[in-house]
Amino acid sequence: MTKAYDQFINLQKKLKEVSDLAGFSESFYNIIKEPERIIEANIPVKMDDGTTKTFRAFRSAHSSALGPSKGGVRFDESVTYEEVKVLSTLMSLKVALLGLPLGGGKGGIVVDPKKLSERELEGLSRGFVRAINNYIGPRIDVPAPDVNTNAKIMGYFTDEYIALNGGRHDIATFTGKSVDMGGSLGRAEATGFGVYLTIKKYYEKIGKSLEGATFALQGFGNVGSFAAKYLVEDGAKLIALNSKDKNAESGSSAVFDANGLDPETLEKARETTGSALNIDAKKISNEEFFALDCDILIPAAMENVIDETNAENVKARLVVEAANGPVTEAGEAILNEKNISLIPDILANSGGVLVSHYEWIQNITGSYWDEEEVRNKQEKDMTKAIEEVFETADKYKVNYRKAAFILSLSRIEKALKLRGRI
Ligand code: NAD
User: Fold this and answer.
1) 51 C-alpha to center of ligand 1: Å?
2) Taking the chain, what is the end-to-end CA distance rounded to the nearest angstrom?
3) Closest ligand 1 atom, residue 146 Cα
4) Contact residues of ligand 1, CB 6 A cut-off
5) Atom 43 in ligand 1: residue holding the nearest Cα
6) Which of 47, 88, 187, 341 could form an S-S bond across to 106 if both were Cys, CB 3.0 to 4.6 Å?
7) Which is the closest atom of ligand 1 to the Cα of 147?
8) Are 406 and 22 in contact (CB under 8 A)?
9) Residues whose CB is less than 8 angstroms from the CB of residue 108 and which lie 6 or more positions away in sequence, other chains included
């Protein structure tokens, strides 16, 4: 069985465990254990050499209980049917946790976009929209960027959608668009800012100040770089960065400085040399990075990086899942045993989808907000979700992941009851 299949089975087990814990019915579990709808398509693309290639594509809409589905589309060779099932289910939980009138969606195409020309990439993007056209729209399902997709691809998606639908400018069908074609200000910073907010609120809860708190960060991309910026601005100290860039000096996977690394210096190194690691600081190994004695460990790069092989060595007091799924089931069990707190991805990195929702609102209403308005609204909406997770964890005496699941599922369950489905 594939890794994604195992992840789907594990997720179903967790949903069942939490459903039982919160007293939800078997009928409810039977609804949420599988996505409502999955489209599987074969997309033909005329290649530059005159041949036609077909690409496998998927779009999963997990739950419409609370509203239209929302979630990214990734272009990657690793995309599978099971993967979109897992990710769309987690998206349902993420949006419900924020109290948004949305469900979870996810899509993907099995392709290595680096192997396509610009023209082929555009053809594939337009073909994807043609394949799912009847199942997307501002009130049905709203795709967005994800791994290897971006505002440019959203531009192709939007243009094709308008053309296919009699010229209707339903640009709220997609989010993550360029600001010049209806995207929201503040989206680039949103996920990193949300990671910072979750940590700040956690520190307030435990009665500590962020001043002087040390953190180790994996990944200096969109999420990691902004999280580092806001944390350092608030007095925290970035003592190590682990990253994987093809331009990193040979042999280095992480840099360490007990006096603190400066995010601006890292940013400059990334811009000028292609890797934030190319700075004057002590080089350490991956193993040393995960075993650092620090207050906060923030994996902000990729999935499954803390598992049974390294969780035992983690010395941080708090692990914050800025990436999606960076801690495996086995890794989390070890962290729990060691009394290390963990803030789950569906809360920590929810700032991105929150501001995508703001983009949807701005497109629907035709009224656009400045950056300050976006930031203030994000702070208010995320603070509410963070505090609710802390309260639920205390109430049920469970960890933050289970608390977040209970909260999300209770909102989906309530909507299904009110709609007479259960
Ligand atoms: P990105 O591509 O901008 O940056 C990824 C960073 O991770 C880079 O610094 C890269 O060097 C590093 N990296 C990649 N592979 C690595 C490895 N094997 N070891 C160490 N470092 C590695 O991506 P991003 O947008 O910052 O997203 C990071 C994570 O956050 C992903 O899991 C993504 O799904 C999740 N996420 C992103 C957003 C968003 O708004 N961008 C929202 C929610 C969740």
Assistant:
1) 34
2) 33
3) 34
4) 191, 218-224, 242-245, 300-302, 322-324, 349, 352
5) 349
6) 88
7) 34
8) yes
9) 57, 58, 73, 74, 75, 76, 79, 83, 84, 146
Which of 87, 226, 244, 354 has most ligand 1 atoms within 8 Å of CB, for mutation?
244
Distance between Cα 185 and ligand 1 center (Å): 21
Residue with tokens 């555009």: 122
Angle at alpha carbon of residue 376, lines to 152 and 268, rounded to 5°: 55
Compute φ and ψ for 200, nearest 5 degrees: -60, -45
Distance CA 399, CA 96 (A): 18
Contact 45, 53 (CB under 8 A): yes
- Mean pLDDT for each consecutive 10-residue tract of the chain (422 residues)? 85 96 97 98 98 98 98 97 97 98 98 97 98 98 96 98 97 98 97 98 98 98 97 98 81 89 97 94 95 98 95 98 95 97 98 98 98 98 98 97 98 98 96
Q: Tokens representing 14? A: 């967790």
The protein residue whose alpha carbon is closest to atom 18 in ligand 1 is: 244
Question: Are the CB atoms for 257 and 264 separated by under 8 Å?
Answer: no
Compute the distance from residue 222 Cα to the ligand 1 centre, in Å. Answer: 7
**Protein residue closest via CA to atom 11 of ligand 1:** 244
SS3 (DSSP) at 165: coil
**Closest residue to atom 5 of ligand 1, CA basis:** 221
pLDDT digits (tens, 9 = 90+) for 330-370: 999 999 999 999 999 999 999 999 999 999 999 999 999 99
Closest atom, ligand 1, to C-alpha of 191 = 40
Catalytic positions, written as ranges: 106
Closest by alpha carbon to 131, among 38, 206, 214, 197? 38
Report the side by side order of strands in the sheet with 69-75.
37-46, 52-61, 103-109, 69-75, 141-145
SS3 368: coil
Give the C-alpha separation, 404 to 401, whole Å: 5
* Span from the CA of 29 to the centroid of ligand 1 (angstroms): 32
Please write the tens of the pLDDT for every residue from 69-116.
999 999 999 999 999 999 999 999 999 999 999 999 999 999 999 999
Contacts of 148 (CB under 8 A, 6+ apart): 74, 75, 76, 113
